[in-house]
């Protein structure tokens, strides 16, 4: 910046109170600046990706220190000192894998300062406004998910926010745009350069193509609960399960983020939904969200496993059973679900939330606790049992994503799907947020809100 030299701030006077926000001016450390200083005060440094801070009139430079330390001052050609601050936010960091997700959360996850990063030529700096709290984020902390990010990394698979800065070669978005970050391109579930760029942070640097426009009609909380859950539901129900209008689907774990997305997607294509869960209050919400029938699968007091709900399902389907089973739970409910299917039905294996410790912790892999399915029921009912790993399938054949992404965004535009977000936490309460997710305390999605920085 012509005519400007950088001088370190050594001693700062005491912080003084801030006046109303509408009285804005450039911070100076000398006497009030003359009018001629205005142009210099507004000048931006582009090579260092730092800009002059805009602060209330009379608000001393030392007041910046609490949230934007450390800093250097720039002195213009006429001697006026301008505050050039390197902003500091916060991020959650996973330093190593734990034996279990909760043990990792207790011992190896912390909240740390985060200096504002600078985007490269074809990169975008996102100021994160909201990040989904995901079940997968928890499994990743113990290395028990199929993809293992390399520690240290920041969790948060899906997030949304505002474009804070763009690289010189970026054309798809500009500063101030509302975006959602594509979890298939950037974040802990991806490999390579952007695998550490999770959304439990004030900022994230992502490639230009990962910064997708936030859909109209969705706020930041809803936008960061869209792609992962609804693309999974579409891939499982439509691409793999071939669910059609007029068919009946049994959706297990319907009160979770992905389960509730499956309810919404099934209704979009005209199917009848029978939803299972273990809590009457949650099931009431699931019914309000579109499920035609709900069944409490909790076993009677003193009994193990799940309730015998086959007869209830058969009664709801005229004795035939369901056409499709969407099972993201696994464990004991799988057997009862197989019994509830009609002959020739499609059984979709989406996950195993009831038995999360299939693999060893600390990323040791193997499957010492592998789930087992009754092959006799599969054979006698002529069932199609289909594995539905959405991300892995997309990695093998990226072309399958275009159709489902278009369908999901079209349903959003039509107002047919709106992600339910029922819990919100400050980023500083990340521990509480993740424990609430692990124990299934809420319906649909939950989010954390990183702190905003001047």
In brief, what are we looking at here?
The protein has 454 residues and is an alpha/beta fold. 24% of the residues lie in helices and 24% in strands. The chain folds into three domains: 5-86, no CATH class; 89-226 and 420-449, Medium-chain alcohol dehydrogenases, catalytic domain (Quinone Oxidoreductase, Chain A, domain 1), CATH 3.90.180; 229-413, Medium-chain alcohol dehydrogenases, catalytic domain (Quinone Oxidoreductase, Chain A, domain 1, Alpha-Beta Complex), CATH 3.90.180.10.
Folded structure, characterized:
With 454 residues, the chain is α/β, with parallel strands linked by helices. It folds into 3 domains: 5-86, no CATH class; 89-226 and 420-449, Medium-chain alcohol dehydrogenases, catalytic domain (Quinone Oxidoreductase, Chain A, domain 1, Alpha-Beta Complex), CATH 3.90.180.10; 229-413, Alpha-Beta Complex (Quinone Oxidoreductase, Chain A, domain 1), CATH 3.90.180.10. It is 24% helix and 24% strand. The chain contains 13 helices and 22 strands. It has helices spanning 38-42, 101-107, 135-141, 220-223, 227-240, 257-268, 280-288, 310-316, 332-339, 375-380, 390-396, 401-413, 430-438, and strands at 5-7, 24-26, 44-45, 50-51, 54-56, 71-75, 81-85, 88-94, 109-115, 123-132, 159-166, 178-181, 203-207, 211-213, 248-251, 272-277, 293-296, 322-327, 341-349, 384-387, 421-426, 445-449. The strands form 6 sheets. Strands 10, 11, 12, 13, 14, 21 and 22 form a 7-stranded mixed sheet that branches. A 6-stranded parallel sheet has the order 17-16-15-18-19-20, with helices on both faces. The protein has a 3-stranded antiparallel sheet with strand order 1-6-7, with no helix packed on it. β6 (71-75) and β7 (81-85) form a beta hairpin. α5 (227-240) packs across α6 and α5 crosses α12. It starts with a strand and ends in a 5-residue tail after the last strand.
